[in-house]
Amino acid sequence: MEECTALQLRDGIARGQYKSFEVTERIFERIERREATIGAFISTFKEEALEKAARVDSNIAAGRKVGSLAGVPIAIKDNLATRFGTTTCGSKILANFAAPYDAHVVEKLEAADAVIVGKCNLDEFAMGSSCENSGLQKTVNPWDASRVPGGSSGGSAAALAAGMCYGALGSDTGGSIRLPASFCGVVGLKPTYGRVSRYGLVAYGSSLDQIGPFGRTCADAALLLQAIAGHDERDSTSIGETEAPVPDYLADLDRPIEDLNIGVAREFFEAEGLDPAVERAVREALNIYEGMGARLVPLSLPHMQYAISAYYLIATAEASSNLARYDGVHYGHRTGRPRDYLDVYYASRAEGFGAEVKRRIMLGTYALSAGYYDAYYLKALKVRNLIRQDFQAAFERVDALCCPTSPEPPFKIGQKVDDPLTMYLSDIYTISANLAGIPAISIPCGLADGRLPIGLQIMTPAFTEDRILRIARMFEAATDYHARRPELKL
């Protein structure tokens, strides 16, 4: 059953082939065996999960209608608000915070009868590319415990890769779903900005943040996306059904796209630090598409070289504003012995925030300060618009763009933690999709040294998640990288 996909499990439970209660029990047996090594979960909900699984089994036995994820064990990133447990964002400042409401996507999972088994570790406030910035614990890569799982949604990807859930949710501000998916050998999809409500997602960069699924296969990602996508009036950026209706993502998933044109920008293979093993795997993937009848179209995204700079001005400026709410007064950590009111604010933030969060707050505050706003933040917004225009021009010629997800395979724990600029370059391929607001997916496409996962990133125009999933499925159907699992010795 461990090799079952979420879709296969869902269908098996519906037919009575499996019992959700028994499946969930086995998931918690795996968590008990593997979690001490992997460190994927900040909190787990065994009692509540087993109760939900039993209700699903009872409803199915009675012939009552159940949801689209009925009985499937799912994990969620711990920056999604839940009325149950805590919502920590991987930060000491929220270590004991209990949210008073559920995020929209949590409501949708509950309505779909998913079994939520736990909340996963992340880089603090989703700020990081390796999951090493968590203020609460360390998560390792199930393929090699000496390496990072990617960030910021490293716990979600690691939990799935280690078989401790059948699907997971993460959030992606600059690559935080796709990078961990690449490093952990699973599928990770960042939907179009506005496709999934951000209500209840603890904000990092509000104009960039998007919630999305992890799955073992493209079908699993489609199944999860189907459950969480759609309009929500509580999020003003959520797109209405009349503007962009949610299609049936599974309906045509296995139908290949004919006359497929794939754009290959020259900048993709000129990026700093591109590992030869990654380049080989991605070029081989492009050859496989070509063998299936796709046409590879050379083109250019001339402003991609400025994406990192623009992102780390826009995202940090928004973070500076969003994180001002953690003041030691309203909620969250409060310093033990304040000297005065100002000390409550200063000391609480100094004690509660980690080094990377402080760094980004300071960068953002500087970029927004008087005399520098026009020179930095405003200019970054103009560059963002140029990047968006580059993608629009490219999609007039091609159906999709393909490139590496990461310039390298998963790197060693501690290798980049003291060099933030090098760490930021891990996101060199993923950031542009967030700046442009378009969907992007990472799928397994190779193994470095025969043992470390490599991801292929596919990008398509806004609100074409059905297309991106079909294109990804074409490669998945022609290869077996998605079926490979870490050799867990736990």
Describe the SSE topology.
Blueprint (H helix, E strand, L loop, with lengths): L5 H10 L4 H19 L2 E4 L1 H16 L11 E5 L26 H8 L3 E6 L33 H8 L5 E6 L5 H7 L2 E4 L19 E6 L2 H11 L32 E5 L10 H16 L3 E5 L7 H16 L18 H12 L2 H14 L4 H23 L4 E5 L15 H5 L6 H6 L3 E9 L3 E8 L5 H14 L12
Parallel strand pairs: 2-3, 2-4, 7-8, 7-9
Antiparallel strand pairs: 1-3, 4-6, 5-6, 5-10, 9-11, 10-11
Helix pairs in contact: 2-3, 5-6, 7-15, 9-11, 9-12
- The gyration radius over C-alpha positions equals 21 Å
In terms of DSSP E residues, the strand content is 5-15%
**What general outline do the C-alpha atoms trace?**
globular
Query: Segments where pLDDT lies below 50 for 5+ residues?
Result: none
Q: Biggest sheet, strands in spatial order?
A: 1-3-2-4-6-5-10-11-9-7-8
Provide the helix percentage: 25-40%
Q: Count every beta strand, where a strand is a DSSP E run of 2 or more residues.
A: 11
Q: Structural class, please?
A: alpha/beta
The N- and C-terminal alpha carbons lie at a distance of: 18 Å
By CATH reckoning, the class of the domain at 6-258 and 440-483 would read: Alpha Beta
Estimate the mean pLDDT confidence: 96
- The total count of helices amounts to 15
State the order of secondary-structure elements, H for helix, E for strand: HHEHEHEHEHEEHEHEHHHHEHHEEH
Major sheet attributes: 11 strands, mixed
CATH second-level architecture of the domain at 6-258 and 440-483: Alpha-Beta Complex
The H-level CATH homologous superfamily of the domain at 6-258 and 440-483, spelled out, is Amidase signature (AS) domain
CATH topology of the domain at 6-258 and 440-483: Amidase signature (AS) enzymes
